[in-house]
Write a structure and sequence with these properties.
With 324 residues, this protein is an alpha/beta fold. The chain contains 13 helices and nine strands. It has two domains: 203 residues, 5'-nuclease (Rossmann fold, 3-Layer(aba) Sandwich); 115 residues, LOTUS domain-like (Nucleotidyltransferase, domain 5, 2-Layer Sandwich). 37% of the residues lie in helices and 14% in strands. This is HTH OST-type domain-containing protein.
């Protein structure tokens, strides 16, 4: 009988952040406020069927988030922060309670409830980190840059930090502050969006934007361009940046004096370089498929089928090319 994992995971969801970000991602920047979704349906008159349809289309799949978090270990803490009396959030209560999520009520002390969830969530994380000594992973579901110090502090306290945010509304610095970062759209169970479904005003995901810069000597350089990732140029830049990250990871692993590197070690190093790296975003189901698409950069040891081993091609010892 397999031994149960000793990894213990705590999940903290800034619910307003993820719901508003998802709605704006699909329907346009600022559309959540323009449609007055927080108070929908109105207490007077008839509900607008067009807005009701938009809300249904932008419904966040909480189960997909929790299932992804459970892949890191047993979930021992799960909290969602919001004003649960708001009509926009009340519809999620059954879904959340069904997954044993603790609904933390934030009463609207101001009209915008600015920083209410940020502060309460951060306080609870710090309390749990010090109180629960067996806690190994902290999952922060939000894209707000205000959570950067929290992620950094958790890492200093030897917790593995995972961030989950919506493309287009995630701070690239928050993604970099985490040990690992995932776009909500790429989580298993979340229906992928076709380019036509995205609002015309949707901007480049900051996490992906960091990978849309033409690779230089530093594969983790910040993006300075706003080329859409789903455009031909943006997609090419994302691929080139992934190639640069692969080469940099291989160079860093050369210090172990092994001719062939294990694929798992390479992927771990790539995630350290860019926590938001995901082979599925590049069109590959598995990391091994991604490696086979980069045979102009690396060689794969054909004498060892499992585990996959690879090494950097000699011609990549001194310079990065535009391989993609």
């Amino acid at each position: 009988m397999p031994k149960p994992s000793r990894d213990r995971v705590a999940v903290y969801i800034d619910f307003d952040n993820i719901v508003i970000s998802r709605y704006n991602q699909l329907h346009g920047d600022g559309q959540f406020a323009k449609d007055k979704v927080r108070s929908f349906p109105p207490t007077y008159g008839k509900a607008d069927p067009a807005i009701a349809a938009r809300i249904r289309a932008a419904t966040v799949d909480v189960a997909a988030i929790l299932d992804y978090a459970s892949s890191f270990g047993a979930i021992v803490v799960s909290r969602a922060y919001s004003d649960w009396s708001a009509p926009a959030n009340a519809g999620y209560q059954k879904q959340l309670i069904g997954r044993a999520v603790d609904l933390t009520q934030l009463f609207p002390t101001t009209q915008a409830l600015k920083n209410g969830a940020d502060i309460r969530l951060a306080v609870d994380v710090m309390e749990d980190v010090f109180r629960l000594k067996g806690l190994t992973h902290v999952v922060i579901v939000a894209g707000d840059s205000d959570y950067i110090p929290l992620a950094q502090r958790c890492k200093r306290l030897d917790r593995y930090v995972i961030g989950i945010g919506v493309s287009g509304s995630t701070s690239q610095s928050l993604a970099a502050a985490c040990d690992e970062f995932a776009d909500y759209d790429t989580l298993p169970g979340v229906q992928p969006l076709a380019p036509a479904e995205l609002a015309p005003t949707t901007t480049v995901p900051p996490a992906a934007a960091r990978r849309t810069t033409t690779p230089t000597a530093s594969a983790s350089a910040s993006a300075t361009t706003s080329v859409p990732a789903d455009s031909p140029v943006g997609a090419r830049n994302v691929q080139k940046a992934a190639s640069a990250a692969l080469r940099r990871a291989m160079e860093l692993l050369e210090k172990n004096d092994l001719e062939w590197q294990h694929a798992s070690a390479v992927k771990t190093q790539m995630k350290r370089i860019d926590p938001s790296f995901q082979e599925k975003q590049l069109g590959h189901n598995q990391f091994s498929d991604f490696l086979r698409s980069r045979l102009n950069i690396i060689e794969i040891d054909k004498s060892s089928a499992t585990p996959v081993r690879l090494r950097l091609r000699p011609e990549f010892a001194t310079s990065i090319t535009d391989a993609d």
